Amino acid sequence: MAIQVSNAFVTLFDSEVKQAYQGQRMLAGLTRERSNVEGSTVKFPKIGKGTATIRVPQTDVTPLNVSYSQVTATMSDFIAAEYSDIFNQQKINFNERQELVQVVSGAIARRMDQVCLDALAAASSPNTVGNDIGGTDSNLNVAKMRAAKKALDAKNVPADGRVLVIHANSLDSLLGETEVTSSDFNTVKALVQGDINTFLGFNVVTLGDRDEGGLPIDGSNDRTVYAFHRDALGLGVGMGQTSRVDYIAEKTSFLVASMFSAGAVSIDDEGIVNITCRES
After folding, report:
1. Can you give the CATH number for the domain in which 30 is found?
2. Domain housing 144
């Protein structure tokens, strides 16, 4: 006889996964996000700049001739699934439910972040901060952060909404900088908390190593971290995170799965800065 999973249980599991997923996703709310996308692609508009001209009485106005273009993000489908053997449970109580919630939600949260990181890596940004800023073959330092800020300032990127995504090794390097940890320079007590939330106007997000790829690093231990503005990166979500639980008779197990469909793209390359950091 087939074993039926109650709607109440599926609803409970789905809500728990969503709650954990939202708590583990690091780049949530830090991009221009469009939800409920229909179809396989989503287009983000990109409008150029214009220059005001002198008004001459009784002459035709001069139009700005603002350029208008679009960038397209293609949806990709992702799923995180695991079997839960019925013999490891007491019927439908799912003793391992909480463990599966953490595993599944963590997998989709990291993958959603990776969709954004891959779009940053694919962007053709004209703004770069090299290895030797602040020291030869150096890791992340205040000089590099200042250079990234300068690059965004020069492009008139708004100060509000700037994000800096760094690696755990980058954070360790920053914590060795007096300008970051000293109260003479910074009101954030970085050494007390062991992290940095904001600095030089950036919302600082720290990521560790990730099986999905994480922040790219090459064979010379040069890792690329990114400074960008929220509106420079677009994320389209075709199907928001959703979960289901099905009994698979051949496996005598429940298949617990969570899935989503999303795609990301650089909207404005000038709002992105690639920072190269040499890790020791």
Report:
1. 3.30.2400.10
2. 1-280
